[in-house]
Each structure stands twice: as structure tokens, then as C-alpha cells.
Amino acid sequence: MVLDLNVSIRENNSIPVIDLEGEIDVYTYPKLSDALQYVFETYPNAKDLIVNLDKIRYIDSTGLGVIANGANQIKKINDGFINIINATPQIKKIFDVSGLISANFKIFDSESDAITSLTK
Amino acid sequence: MTNIKLTIPSLSDYVGVVRLTASGIANRMKFTHEDIEDIKIAVSEACTNAVQYAYGDSPGDIEIVFSIFEDKLEIKISDSGKGFDIDADVKTKEDDPEKIGLGLGIVFMRSLMDHVDYDTSVNGTTVTLVKKVIS
């Protein structure tokens, strides 16, 4: 069984979306870090970035650390936010335990919910 | 009580193997799906700390012992590295946004398991994690 992380990047209503599939841990988190840096360089004026966790089966503190660091960056550069979508109840619990949600990023149940809110 | 022992090199590649083993053992013990996910995260966090801090640039071994009791699973994660000051390390990491995930690892272990214990010295560190079976 291969434990890996697949990353792809697209746009929805001009908002960059990072689709993730697999597991985010100490072995795979550099791929997520690279994807965030790529998005920040490709979309230097973006105020919002969506991270789609629909196909993420596992995330730990290393993954949350990368997302929190990315959220700090987009906040500093454009006063923007990272928006998490499609997190499982277990992953929402991890975000909750981390205490990072309100300070660093927003969580939406679905991509359509996020797009509706972010394009108002 | 039954013991299952696993030894991995202190390389990030192998943390997922420990997670898979923990998941298999916890599933066999009839833990709930939520508890199994909690155990996977806690054991990964302990292994991640050992991978990142125990040995510096020269990898060593990490030994994981799963002790299966009727009413609980006890997991000991041991390295023979340089040891560390838990409270000082958490503070340092919280002050450094680049390393925020590392302080979080200790928060997760404490939040997700029923009991967590650290035994650390210049000869190495053992983290003990306990999750009770709710019948």
C-alpha cells in the first residue's frame, strides 16, 4: 500500500483551488508546501485560496502546520484567507483541537458553499 | 497482555507504516472508528517527533511496542537519541510559525489519548500513549 499525497491545482470563479488526495504527514507535507508556494507565486493578488480535502484520508500536525503557515502568508500579503472545504468529521475535529480555525482559516462544508460566500 | 514490537529507521518514509500497524491492531481490538483515527494521529505524532529531533543528521532506530490489554491499548515509542525538554520545545515551536505543527503534535497526543507520559534523558526518549477500550 502506497501512502502518498497527490496534488492538483485549478480555478473556480477565478479563485485558486488546491485538490488534495491521500495522506498528509511528515513524509508527504513538502508536496503541500510546494503547492501553496506555487499558488502564492502564480496568483500574487489572490485574497482567497481554497484547499479541497475531499480525498484526504489523514492529516496530522505537520499538514496543519503547513496550512497554518500558508494562511499566515496570504493574510500578510493580501489580507486574505485559506478556505478549507470537504473536511471529514475527523479532520474537522483535528482543526478544532488545534485551536487554529478562527485565527487562520475558514472551513466550508462544500466547494459551492465556499464559492457562494467568497464571491458575494 | 500481548506485545507486538516494530522497529523502524528514524526516517519520515516509515511513519505511515507505524500508522497502518496501529490501525490494524486497534481495529482488531474493536475500537470505534473515531478512536482508531485518534490512535493513528497520536502514534504518528510521537514517531514524527522522534524522526525530526532524536538523532540529528545521523538516523537511528525507533522502537514501537504495542501492548494489548483487555481494556486498553498501550503504545511505547522509544528512541536512543539526545532527548529533549518537552515544555521548552513546545514554547520554542509555538514562537516559530514555520514550526507550528511540531508544538501541535504534543497538543494532539494529549488531547486524543487517555494518558500520555514522556520519559526523556540524554540517552533517549520514550513516549507512552494509552487509549482505553470503551465497551
Quick recap of the structure?
Chain A has 120 residues and is α/β, with parallel strands linked by helices.
Architecture blueprint of SSEs:
The complex is a heterodimer of chains A (120) and B (135).
Chain A: E1 5-12, E2 15-24, H1 29-42, E3 48-59, H2 61-78, E4 81-85, H3 89-98, H4 101-104, E5 105-108, H5 111-118
Parallel strand pairs in A: 2-3, 3-4, 4-5
Antiparallel strand pairs in A: 1-2
Helix pairs in contact in A: 1-2
Chain B: E1 2-9, H1 15-28, H2 33-53, E2 61-68, E3 72-79, H3 86-95, H4 100-112, E4 115-121, E5 124-132
Antiparallel strand pairs in B: 1-2, 2-3, 3-5, 4-5
Helix pairs in contact in B: 1-2, 2-4, 3-4
Structural summary, described in words:
The complex is a heterodimer of chains A (120) and B (135). Chain A has 120 residues and is an alpha/beta fold. Chain A is 45% helix and 32% strand. In chain A, helix 1 packs parallel to helix 2. The longest helix of chain A is centred in the middle third of the chain and has 18 residues. Chain A starts with a strand and ends with a helix. Chain B is of the alpha+beta class and 135 residues long. In chain B, helix 1 runs antiparallel to helix 2, helix 2 crosses helix 4 and helix 3 packs across helix 4. The longest helix of chain B has 21 residues. At the A-B interface, helix 2 and helix 3 of A face helix 1, helix 2 and helix 4 of B.
